Structures are given as structure tokens and as C-alpha cells.
Amino acid sequence: MGFMRRVRLSRSDADGKPVAEAVGLDAFGTEETTAAAPEPQAVKLPQQAWIAIGVLAGLVLIEAVPTALWLRGRLRPPVVSEPVAAATLPAAAAIPLASCDSTPAPAPAASPAPTTGVAKGPSAPGKTDAVPAAVTPPVDKSMLAGSVSVATPVPMQVLLKGRVVATTEAQSFMLPVGTQELEFVNENVGYRARRTVTIQAGKTTPVRLDPPSGTVNINAVPWAEVWLEGQRLGDTPLGNLRVPIGSRELIFRHPDLGERRATVLVTLKEPARISMDLRKK
Q1: What are the residue boundaries of the structural domains of the chain, listed by start?
Q2: What would the CATH number be for the domain defined by 143-208?
């Protein structure tokens, strides 16, 4: 007990404060001391530190704006532009020929305007956006038609589907490619014939017509030798001669009265008749 008391006294002396000492049975009791807590004091910084803090705060604010814009651009999803549809040209239209079918070809449908990914603003009232017309490339007519040449002793009209498309007096004429049924007609001589021809692109198809012969009766006064296209037919009178149809020139020759020429039209309708008086000048 004496030892503990000495220890307490030594602690009291060291702190400079009196220590309550218990006597008797309270000698071993607990020592209660109340020590006053130190009061907090405000930290005082020098003026240079406050200036440095202000400068740093200004720099942070200046860098914060571009940093925020950069982060916004990086986080925004990329804008995907719509694919631009390529403008299509209408298919090339066939050029109708004068000898083709009279049924008009349907007009090609208008191509839709190409769409783009850029949206246009509202148009001004009373104005519309001009759309350029599609340019149709030229078509080579030789790839759509061929020509026909006809050899015949008499001129004829050429009909296709009941419509006159040409005459045989022309060297050749154009027709659509394909198999065509043509009709050859000469009303003056009473001739009509049909031929089926195959027209090839860019080529000439030959057609030969050999019309039948007609009947002709020839007479001369007093008499004469009769010649046709360099061929001697005989001495007049000549009856029921078979001569190719058409306009024919006959030559009448007499040893004393000389030579005369005359033209006769030979047809299939009826026999032709011609008479020559060599005594007349």
C-alpha cells in the first residue's frame, strides 16, 4: 500500500496537479481526474498560398470545358448515313418503224428520283424541284430491222397485215426483224400473190416474183412480123399468144412499109387485143 501511494504522489508531482488520494478502503479505488480538452484553433495560411490556390482553381475551370466537350463527342454514337441509291436508266425503248405494226408501244414508266441521306428543307411556295429527264441512248436501227429487195417484171404494192408498206419500184425497203407474211398486189393486171420472208437484222432478204402470162391477140394490115423484147413471135395474124403480164412493147416489121412500135397491156383479167395499120403514116 505504501508503494502504491508513493507512485501516485510521484505522478502528481510530475504533472504539477494535486491528486485526490483515497484513504482507508478507497486506497485501491480508481483515480478520477478531469483534464480540460484543448480548444481547436483555426489554421492560418499565408497570402501566397491563397493566391496559388485561386490560380489552380481557375486553371481547373478553364480545362473543364474542352474536356467535357471531348467526352461528349466520344460518348455520342456515330451517325450512320443512309446509302445513296444509284439512279437507274430506263431500259432502251424500241424505235417504231414506218413498216411496223401500228399498235403504239407503251410509254416507259418514270424512274423514281434517287434518295439521299441529306434531308432537304421546306421548299418555297410556288416552286418545285426540277428533276432532270432521263436521256435515252440512241438505238441502232440496223439491229431492229432488215431490208427486202424484190425482183418482178411489173411494179407492185407490198402489203404487211393489210397495210401498204412499200412498192417494188424501190430498190429495197425496211421491215421489222422476224418472219413476215407479205402480199404483192397489182390491180391493173389482176395479179395478187403472198410470200413468207424471214427478215434478219442488218441484212437484205431477196424476193423473186415470176408472175404468170396473159393472153394477147395481134393483127396487122396488110401483114407484119411481130417481135417482143428481141424475140420473134411470128407473122400476123397471131391469136392467143402467151405473154408475160404487164406493159409490153411490140415491134411490127414489113419489108416495104417499114417498122412500127406499139405498147399493149397484158393482164390476167381478159385477153389483150392490138392491131397495127402499116399503111398509115
Answers
A1: 143-208, 213-277
A2: 2.60.40
- In which order are the strands placed within the sheet that holds 238-244? 238-244, 213-221, 272-277
CA–CA gap between residue 250 and residue 264 (Å, rounded): 7
The Cα-based distances of 14 to 7, 28, 35, 76 in angstroms read 11, 21, 15, 72
E strand map for 104-245: 145-151, 157-160, 163-167, 173-176, 178-186, 191-199, 204-208, 213-221, 225-228, 231-235, 238-244
Its CATH class, for the domain covering 213-277, is mainly beta
State the Cα–Cα distance between residues 261 and 254, nearest whole angstrom: 12
Q: How many CA atoms lie within 13 A of 145 on its CB side?
A: 18
Cβ–Cβ under 8 Å, residues 129 and 111 = no
62-112 residue pLDDT tens:
877 777 777 777 776 665 555 545 445 455 444 444 444 445 555 555 555
**Are 143-208 and 213-277 equal in CATH topology?**
yes
Amino acid at 13: D
